[in-house]
Specification:
Layout lengths: L1 H32 L2 H17 L1 H10 L2 H23 L6 H15 L2 H12 L5 H12 L1 H4 L1 H45 L1 H25 L2 H8 L2 H28 L5 H12 L1 H11 L5 H18 L6 H29 L5 H12 L1 H21 L11 H4 L5 H23 L1 H4 L6 H6 L5
């Protein structure tokens, strides 16, 4: 776990820098262009390349050194941040230039996610999968947990350009952490050649099989793995709907809060809400012996209930409390899903399968970024304006005026999450892992 700990540290630092830039750009785009769609466009530009390139990144991580892929991705993302810095030198930053920089940075950062997840399988025993998943979730939580409040404090002092510079610096720190792990593994192998030979033989066979699969099957190997497991297919479908709901919350949290509080207060509220991830990560480690389907169902149910409560109470601090409950529940479902996947998929195909799963499930985020703002601005908000068609019906429950349409959509997504929890509970036997199947191990082998 020592090497995983260092990778987690690098991921935490990088996630913090990413969160600083994301918060700063959202505030600047909203202030400059005055529309939620401008902030959503930056979010879309940051996420779409990671989603669309995930299968290719997974195939590369299966074929080549996974730590090397992480180094290339983190170091290369600095190029995109440089483009963003140039765009921000203008008093009125152009949305297209900022989005272009976000796309470049994300294209290179896409290399890191499948490689990092597959590195967990490389470096820890099966009984530590849940613990490692909890640590990775805690690291990725930095962009929500600390970055909003820190960005709110730093922006008056150094501006958004200063936040982007800090982000670039964290990328270089992450590269150093990953390089240290890579060097330590090679040194340990050189000092213990016998042990290295015994440990490396299975890995070499797995990588050789992966390379042969890559030449014959290409990026479809991950999809074939998913298609061959009925339980895995159902799990991916459930995860896709869940990411859609969470994506809606991510897009609409600022439009909900903006009519109520200042930008600095907004950052503080978002950070307070995100501290629920600490509680959630602790719950994951406490419940490490629970069935993964239990973790998944409990997380979905808790997240759904918290989102349903968002439109039912007034005030920014009510939203903060609901966000806290949401982030507390989310790590449970994430850990359960990850353990279910690792229990079903052979290590030979882990990275490319994670890449394909990311491509499918994170389409939910893309749909949310594309549609949530438009749906609120053109449909729900007009219906809930004072004197609007729903102002005396639904409006009597959720309120009327700015931000209430966004809150209503979040509540509706919470209902969808609760229904997913019921689905998991009913189909838990189908979802439970039975271990990698023999055909997974032989699918990548040459026909003999």
């Amino acid at each position: 776990m020592r090497h995983v700990g260092l990778l987690v540290l690098g991921s935490f630092i990088n996630s913090l820098g990413t969160g600083l830039t994301a918060f700063g750009l959202a505030v600047v785009m909203l202030a400059t262009h005055g529309t939620a769609s401008s902030a959503a466009a930056v979010q879309l530009s940051s996420f779409a390349p990671i989603v669309l390139l995930a299968p290719a990144a997974g195939a590369l991580a299966d074929r080549y050194d996974r730590r090397l892929m992480m180094i290339i991705g983190d170091a290369g993302s600095v190029l995109g941040l440089s483009i963003i810095l140039l765009a921000l030198s203008s008093p009125r930053p152009r949305l297209a230039q900022v989005c272009a920089g976000a796309v470049v940075s994300s294209c290179l950062a896409a290399l890191t996610e499948p490689a990092l997840r597959a590195s967990v399988t490389d470096l820890v025993p099966r009984e530590d999968y849940v613990r490692a998943s909890g640590l990775l979730q805690l690291a990725s939580a930095a962009k929500y947990l600390l970055a909003p409040a820190l960005a709110g404090l730093l922006m008056p002092l150094i501006g958004v350009r200063g936040l982007v510079v800090i982000d670039a610096s964290t990328c270089l720190v992450t590269v150093a952490c990953t390089a240290t792990v890579r060097r330590a593994l090679r040194t340990a192998g050189a000092r213990s050649p016998g042990a290295r030979s015994a440990q490396a033989a299975p890995a070499q066979e797995e990588r050789g099989a992966a390379e042969q699969a890559g030449s014959g099957g290409g990026l479809m190997a991950g999809w074939r793995t998913i298609a061959s497991h009925p339980g895995l297919r159902l799990l991916v479908a459930l995860m896709t709907v869940a990411t859609l709901a969470i994506g809606v919350l991510q897009v609409l949290i600022k439009p909900i809060l903006m009519p109520m509080v200042s930008t600095a207060a907004m950052g503080a509220i978002e950070t307070i809400a995100a501290t629920g991830m600490l509680v959630g990560a602790s719950l994951v480690t406490i419940m490490k012996n629970a069935r993964p389907t239990t973790l998944l169902a409990a997380g979905l149910a808790g997240t759904g209930a918290a989102m349903v409560l968002v439109p039912l109470g007034p005030g920014a601090w009510w939203v903060s409390a609901c966000g806290f409950l949401t982030f507390t529940s989310l790590p449970l479902s994430q850990a359960g899903a990850e353990v279910l996947v690792r229990g079903e998929v052979d290590n030979t195909r882990q990275a490319r399968t994670w890449g394909t799963i990311s491509l499918i499930t994170q389409m939910g985020y893309l749909v949310a970024y594309l549609c949530a703002g438009v749906l609120v601005d053109r449909v729900l908000q007009p219906l809930l304006r004072p004197g609007g068609p729903l102002s005396t019906g639904v409006g009597a429950v959720v309120g009327t005026g700015p931000g209430r349409g966004a809150a209503l959509l979040v509540g509706l997504m919470g209902v969808a999450m609760a229904l997913l929890a019921v689905r998991v509970r009913l189909r838990r036997d189908r979802l439970a892992p039975s271990g990698p199947r023999e055909e997974d191990r032989s699918a990548d082998s040459p026909a003999g």
